[in-house]
Design a protein that fits this description.
Layout lengths: L22 H7 L5 E4 L4 E4 L4 H12 L15 H11 L8 E6 L7 H7 L3 E6 L11 E5 L12 E7 L10 H11 E12 L1 H4 L8 E3 L1 H10 L2 E9 L11 H9 L4 H10 L4 H10 L12 E8 L2
Parallel strand pairs: 3-4, 3-6, 4-5, 6-7
Antiparallel strand pairs: 1-2, 2-8, 7-10, 9-10
Helix pairs in contact: 1-2
Bound molecules: zinc ion (ZN).
Length: 301
């Protein structure tokens, strides 16, 4: 398979997929998947993933997430919070902007964005149905398909840990479609795990970028780089020592008390949830202590 970016046919097999989590599902849907690398573009990609298998994989692992009630105290965790702080450090959040989030899972960025801009129109693609109390939340579909999905005009696209899940053959088309849907000077926020730095190659990740590869991709597709940040892993910080993290993993179980706990939350005013969450937000996350890359790009007109 030629390079997705430069079409060079001298891609190399440097890395191999490893056993990640969801071993049973991975074996079923991703037997013998392979990675090739374009050393020129600093991009690696899966050469033989089947779209149907990818969809079925998500369906099987998402079964447990379906209809799961939102824990409001987890809407604000350190990953979301630091992403938004990074973003507003570079870009103003205007009133009534239209934000599209690709793959928010059961939480997403909306509650954290709303701390800084109350008036947001929010669209998303995910197999999961979001259960936030806010207005103007519109689900556009289970997943984004560049061939069939219709997009409204958008100011900002939020891709937190979703770029590395795109079907490699569709990558260019997906980003081009986003470019078309963005308004003048529209932005995309991207965060991906730095899998190449970690030497971690696991399904369902299908794309692996180094910093230079990300820049090359977006510049080629007519975007300007506004900000880029590589964040190293935080091995020195032992997150498992934080009391609250152990507590929250216990209450995640589907016990009667957990259901009651989630039910009662509905009646707690927003400002108390926020007050608590901000005070303790470091113990509500992060989702990983692995190295990541963050990027904000702007549509060139
Ligand atoms: Zn290349």
């Amino acid at each position: 398979m030629n390079c997705l970016l430069c079409n060079n046919n001298e891609t190399k097999e440097i890395y191999n997929y490893q056993d990640g989590s969801f071993v049973k599902e991975s074996k079923k849907y991703f037997a013998n998947v392979r990675v090739r690398t374009c050393e020129n573009c600093k991009i690696s990609f899966c050469t033989n993933i089947v779209k149907e298998n990818l969809d079925n994989f998500y369906k099987s692992i998402y079964q447990n997430f379906q209809n799961k009630k939102i824990d409001r105290f987890k809407e604000f965790n350190s990953r979301f919070f630091s992403q938004v702080l990074f973003f507003i450090n570079h870009v103003k959040l205007h009133k009534n902007i239209k934000v599209l989030e690709v793959g928010p899972n059961n939480l997403g960025i909306l509650p954290s964005l709303k701390i800084f801009q109350e008036k947001i129109y929010y669209y998303y693609f995910d197999q999961i149905l979001l259960d936030h109390k806010h207005n103007n939340i519109i689900k556009l579909g289970n997943y984004f398909d560049p061939n069939t999905s219709k997009l409204p005009e958008i100011d900002l696209i939020w891709m937190s840990h979703s770029l590395e899940h795109i079907m490699p053959k569709e990558l260019i088309k997906v980003i081009k479609t986003y470019h078309d849907a963005l308004k003048k000077s529209g932005k995309i926020f991207i965060e991906i795990p730095n899998d190449v730095k970690r030497k971690s190659f696991n399904v369902p990740h299908t794309l692996f970028f180094e910093k230079e590869g990300l820049i090359k991709l977006f510049e080629k597709l007519n975007f300007k780089i506004i900000a880029l940040s590589e964040i190293d892993g935080v091995d020195h910080f032992n997150f498992s020592n934080i009391k609250n993290e152990n507590k929250t993993s216990k209450i995640e179980k589907k016990t009667f008390f957990n259901k009651l706990y989630l039910f009662i939350q509905k009646f707690i005013p927003d400002k108390y949830v926020k007050k608590y969450a901000f005070k303790h937000f470091i113990s509500n996350g992060p989702n990983s202590n692995f190295p990541i890359i963050r990027l904000i790009v702007e549509k060139k007109n």
